[in-house]
Amino acid sequence: MSSQAKAALQEIRDAVEIELADFLTAQSNYLTSISSDLAPVSQALSSFLLDSGKRLRPLFAYSGYLSAGAKVEGPVIKAIASLELLQACALIHDDLMDGSDTRRGKPSIHRHFESMHVQDELEGFAPAYGLAAAVLLGDLALVWSNQMLNVAGLSSQQIHDVLPIHDEMRTELMAGQFLDIHEQTQKTVDLDRSTKIARYKSGKYTIERPLHIGAALSGKHTPELLSVLSAYGLPLGEAFQYRDDLLGVFGDPSVTGKPAGDDLREGKRTVLIALTDKASTQSMREESKKYFGAPDLDSRGISILQEMITSSGAKEKMEFMINELTEQALTAVESELIDESAHPLLLELAKIATKRST
Amino acid sequence: MSSQAKAALQEIRDAVEIELADFLTAQSNYLTSISSDLAPVSQALSSFLLDSGKRLRPLFAYSGYLSAGAKVEGPVIKAIASLELLQACALIHDDLMDGSDTRRGKPSIHRHFESMHVQDELEGFAPAYGLAAAVLLGDLALVWSNQMLNVAGLSSQQIHDVLPIHDEMRTELMAGQFLDIHEQTQKTVDLDRSTKIARYKSGKYTIERPLHIGAALSGKHTPELLSVLSAYGLPLGEAFQYRDDLLGVFGDPSVTGKPAGDDLREGKRTVLIALTDKASTQSMREESKKYFGAPDLDSRGISILQEMITSSGAKEKMEFMINELTEQALTAVESELIDESAHPLLLELAKIATKRST
Predict the structure, then answer these.
(1) Which of B50, B111, B113, B309 sits between 20 and 30 A of A182, alpha carbons compared?
(2) Which numeric CATH code is attached to B2-354?
(3) Which Pfam families match (chains A, B) (predicted)?
């Protein structure tokens, strides 16, 4: 069952990949028809987008479509593939805001253009060039995600049904991102605030809304179906974010493609950190302040913080919460409103979202 | 005639203002329903967008609509007002990329959030917070411009007609912006390259495409009409950019709301600079390098560069080109394909675009 679902997901991933490659080739030709100086832009976006990524948002959208009992047709794959371009915008701008050097083991976009500036001995200040390129490539990815959806070949009815959800999802994404950077400026950590950020950044943006978009594309998106999809998507999205937070602290750099303890160096106030703080004494809090968020945090400091998080019980509690939330999600799948054809995918996706190491 | 046109333009500006204020109020309520921590986001965007700006893009779109001989109805104003949100994205991200401290005499968005960080004694590094806020507010403005167009109440046919032009305009904008920042990294200045940037950033994005969007909304956008609108819009847009470049060097800070000689301090390679370079001897080029692009450029350095530009004949040549291009645009207006009702507005807008001091 699971291996069949895995194969089905891989088939969709491949179809998404083909649509993305086609679209990017056309856009790349368009850009170079304006000026050959734009070649590095489409090259960088193609290399960022193709041959990598879990394609989670298109996969959830596809499952949302199946959940409504519809049979997937051509334009739908192209429409849901566009979510990967939106995600590219989010990641490119996120790496810039966080000052992250790498993404999936490769240089982040701002570092990539910064290096090109140095290598080609260009005029001006290389980091400023990197910043500007990352801002514009993220903007372009955002515009293109919209364009790809527009040119997918959807019917007027599908466009009419999907745009409101798509617009709301994008506002929720930016709102979640702002709350996240705002949280890093607060003097205290707060479980409620961090939980809300996890809900918006991941529960809604990564899972619930893609499912809704898929359902809307089918035209069979009753309020009841949308609400069952939320009952699956919201807890699963939260669990997804908590797995992400655990990987940001305990993940293996050779697998995640990010430096060890990256979130600790950044001082990211996640639910994991809020739970640790809650279980800490004042002296432990003082001690952790020496390391948490230190830009020069070394492996010794990382070990100390990892040990504090583990011994506070926060790590275990997070694993427990991930299990609980995943169980909630799986219970929702049993609803008779969800077409059987979607079951194997929704179950497999729940595993991928919560039991991953990257 | 001109005063009637002025009054008509002001009426459209007022209507655009009302639509923007309405939309922003609704979005602001939505954001604060997510979290009160998002209040600064909508406040900053409202203060950035309302009560300021020339509203050029909506005005050109309106004129494009009239050019087709259509009578403007409710949803059209809301649809064309959305162009101001796209422009807000462009300006917010532009100021961040250029490191500009001010916009229309007020702090730029990244500086605004940086100051809030300092004032509220928040944790972390204030400029990093300013950067992140500017990235996200620009993204949000881009998403909202799209949403405002989507919810304007257009018919399916109007949506179908306008989206391809809208998508192309946004790609052209980002392409023009990238070519602009790329140009600043080149060892040589180049008249052809700088002219192309002016054409994409202003000819197409500011004038031609808004005219086309207006025409498309009317449903009467024959290829012939679009091509006459291009014959007006492209030269006028180029002239608009050259006026901008002159103001960036010779503008009065009390009127432009930007520091004197801002473009000189930034080392912006405009057509004006390319013309100066072309008319300079090698020793003059060496001399100008001491000042051009120096971050600490003072009023003496600005005067020296201004004098070089003037005495090279480049300033005069630019004024000549602005006149020539404007004449070309005005000739295009005489086409019988353009409905008479649009004439006064197109003539007045040509004045506003090229004879302004801000």
Answers:
(1) B50
(2) 1.10.600.10
(3) polyprenyl_synt
